[in-house]
Structure formats: structure tokens, C-alpha cells
Amino acid sequence: MLVPLLLSGCGPFALNRGLRDYGAVYANASNQQTLLNLARLANHHPAYFVQLGTVTSSYSATGNLGAGATRNDGDYIFGGNGSAGVAATSGGNFQIIPLGGGDFASQIVKPIPPEVFMVLYREGWRVDQLMRVLVERIEIHHADTNTTEVIGNNPSDPESYVRFLRTCELARYAQAAGALRLEKKNTEESVSPILAVPPSAKESVEGVEKNIIWKKVNGGWQAFKKGASPVFSLETSNRRWANRLVEDPAFASEKAKRAKENFFSLLAANGLKVRTSDEKSENAGDSAEVVIRSFNGALAAVALEQEAFQPFVRSHAEAIPAAQQRPILTLRWDAPPPGCNTLVQVTYNRSRYAIADVLGDGGQSSWNRDVFRLITQLYYQISVDISKYNQNTYFLSR
């Protein structure tokens, strides 16, 4: 009975240890892969993507039981001995899948859907981190002059980038106060020129099937596609929280104060629509729109920002809110600072890259790890079904 009992106890133990060990291997490999691509892009090298596929494990256990006895008839001496042993072995195969081809390429280069931005915001992510990672630019349309003002998320254009960082800080204050809402609102986008004659019955029926409606416009008929887009709006019943912004030197100048009030007024009136670069801008009246990057664009922007950010901050420190005076992700570390919490690190091109945070860093002691976690979550949001890549796989055995 002893050996079967010992063998039966090995199964759950081996399974639990296998789940823990292989889970840790998968997590570390995925983190290193993401960081390595960020390091490549920081050196202006191309990124390459591989993904771990299935992990198969095998466990075997063997046991033995022995017994012996001695007897001396003359003296009636009896003796005996016994032994038992159990041995367990385990092995595993890891499937590594190089990702490429049209399906994967289209996923990483097309803009991230606005719905992803909305889901992340509702999950509780900091809006300033979401904007600095995901947003390419903000477009503000002025109806009176029929002009569009662009606020870019790029330190190569310092004046525009200062305004973008201020906008991120304004949004962060509003979010923290529970005054910044992000909700889907119905939209209508024109998909035809104005026609002199009304649509035929067939065109009307086909339009309904495609979510297209016809409206009278300036004496003619025009087709509009109905949809829904995430739109930021501002709760205006309580604006006392906004008064705290006057304590930040970045909002002390008259120009910054006017920009702040204009931003809040626009949010309260028409909202701030979240859209992709391949969607048509509404440009109806005074409006503002956040334009979303692709995953590939976000990854490259995050990887390259640190290089240009430090000289930018030195030249514009007084105009940048204190909470935004750091690159969106600090990747390159000359040496690990004391009290540093490091998630993962790699060496690339003779430089050390790490995802790490300095403990007690002014209430933002998890900034870099959170941004890295956001990038990882985005990757899983846009990654394709790996079952399509089974023909191009490599196996590593343990």
C-alpha cells in the first residue's frame, strides 16, 4: 500500500509545480520579448515578433518495494528488512511561433480601435498614460475661421508637445475628481455628395441594411452612415477641483490659463471625440478630436521618447506640469539606482535596458511598470490567432 500511496501523492504536487514553473517561464519570456523589441526600436532597429504557443509537459513516477528475511533454525532467530523508493521525472516542450505575414502586419499597423481606448479608461487606467501612449495628436477645429489646430504628441515639436502634456494633466485632474466621462455617442458621417434627386426605393432599402440613412441637405439629398464613437465630456456641476491647477506653475501664465479654460469649455460643450486616423473628421462647428495611433506607432513612440525627452524638459521645465516631467517610459539605465524595483532587463547593443521604478518616487513608484503592462495588454488586444501560424514553429525541449 505504501508505494501506491506515495505515487498517487506525486501527481498533484507535480501538476502544481509545473503550472507555477511553466507560468513563470512564459511570463518572463514574454516580458523579455517585449522589452527587447522596445530596445531595438530605441536603437532605430526593426522589431521582430515571436510568441510562445503551446507548452506540453510530461511527468513520470516510478516506485520500488523490496523485502528480505533471515532465519536460523538452531537458535530460532528470525530477521527481516524492507525498502521502498519513489522517483519522479518531468519534461516539457515549448512551441515558439515567429509572427509575420499579411494578417499580423495589418493588425499592428492599423490604428487601435477607439473602443479599446474606452475599455482601458473604464478599467481605471490613468488617462494621461493612455493619452501619452495611444494618442498621436489632438485636432481642434475652429468653425469661425474654418481652420484646424493640431496638438502633437511628439517632443520634436516642443511648443505643440508642451500643450499636449498640459492637456494630459488637465485630463488627469478631471479624471481624479470623477468629472471626466467617456461614453459612446451616436455619430453620422456623410458618405455621398449632395444629390439633386431623392434616393430610389432600392437605395433606401440597401442603405438601411448598411446602417445608412438619407437626409435632406441644402435642397438636395445626402447619405449618412450611422455609428457610435467614444466621446469625452466634462461634468460641469462641480469645478472646484479645477482650482487646484492654479498651484501648478505650468498653468501660471495667461496663455496657459486661457488654453485651460478653452479646453474645459470645449469639453463641456461638444466633447472630445476619440477616433482613428483613417476615420473622417467631422469638423462640424467647434469640435475637438483625439486621433489614435497604431500599435506599431505606439510601440515606436514609447521606445524613442526617452532619447529626446531629457533635453526637451531642460528647455521647457517651467511650462510642463510636474507630473508629466518624465518620459512615458524610461528604458535605458546606466546603472540600477538604489531601491529600484526591476521587473525585467536585457542587454542590447552594449546598453542596459530595464523596466524598473524607484521606490517612493513621488507617488508614481510604479509608473514604468504600469506603462509596460499597458503595452503588453495592448499587444494581446491586437494579436492574431496563433493557430494560423502552426506551419512555422520551432520547438525547444527541456
Overview of the structural elements:
It is built from nine helices and twelve strands. By secondary structure, the chain is an alpha+beta fold. It has two domains: 2-99 and 389-397, no CATH class; 111-328, no CATH class. Residues 389-397 have low confidence and may be disordered.
Mean pLDDT: 80
What is the alpha-carbon Rg in Å? 30 Å
Number of domains: 2
CA-based shape: globular
Q: Between the first and last Cα atoms, what is the distance in angstroms?
A: 33 Å
Number of helices: 9
Largest sheet: 7 strands, mixed
Helical percentage: 25-40%
Query: How many extended strands?
Result: 12
Structural class: alpha+beta
Instruction: Please report which band the strand proportion falls in: under 5%, 5-15%, 15-25%, 25-35%, 35-45% or over 45%.
Output: 25-35%
Report the uncertain regions: 389-397
What order do the SSEs take from the amino end to the carboxyl end, as H and E?
HEEHHHEEHEHEEHEEHEEHE
TL;DR?
The chain is 37% helix and 31% strand.
List the helices and strands and how they pair.
Layout: H1 2-42, E1 50-72, E2 77-98, H2 102-109, H3 114-122, H4 127-134, E3 135-142, E4 147-152, H5 158-176, E5 180-190, H6 201-209, E6 212-217, E7 220-234, H7 254-269, E8 272-276, E9 287-292, H8 295-316, E10 340-348, E11 351-358, H9 367-382, E12 394-397
Parallel strand pairs: 8-9
Antiparallel strand pairs: 1-2, 2-12, 3-4, 3-9, 5-7, 6-7, 7-8, 10-11
